[in-house]
Amino acid sequence: PLFSSATVPVNFTATGATSVSCKLEPSGTPISGCVSPQTIVAPEGDNTVTVVATNSASTTTVGWKFKVDTSTPLVDITSINPTGDSFNGWPTLSFTASDGVGSGLKSVQCRNAAGSTAAGTYQTCTSGNLTSTATLQAGVYTAQVRATDWLGNVTTDQATYTVLQDGPTVNMTNVKFASTSGGLDSACAVT
Hints:
Blueprint: E1 2-3, E2 7-10, E3 19-25, E4 31-32, E5 38-41, E6 45-54, E7 59-68, E8 74-81, E9 92-98, E10 105-114, E11 123-124, E12 128-129, E13 139-149, E14 154-163, E15 175-179, E16 182-186
Parallel strand pairs: 1-7
Antiparallel strand pairs: 2-5, 3-4, 3-6, 6-7, 8-9, 9-12, 10-11, 10-13, 13-14, 15-16
């Protein structure tokens, strides 16, 4: 089982026992007179609690394994790269996401929006191109990456980038060029 708190209830029955002790393995202090439910404080990660029940005839030891995940996942946008001098497309987004010793990643999602705060719908993503069928207009954009673990712990990282407006297009038609040897009519286009 997974717990999002370091305080974990240990539930058990020990029928016919004259003494019961509990211990968080491997280095916890044994709790004499342990009764169910016994609350223990466990560190982050994988844990085992042993319950030892004794009577005049024998001793029975039972172990119970569980995981504590109180930390949020790790997510880091390592780069966001427009390409070219006049960027007018979607950026390439590189990031890392992990959950350390936690419960594992349930999802990694990205979203993109105009302005300093991302708004819009998160979608499943991997490092690579942020894409959409929409054309990005000139302006400042925010890309966000959100990582969620199996217990609902969430971390978000974001980066901003700027989309530049394309340079202007100039078309010239029916332009007369003069020469010393006579007139010349011509048409040209400059972009």
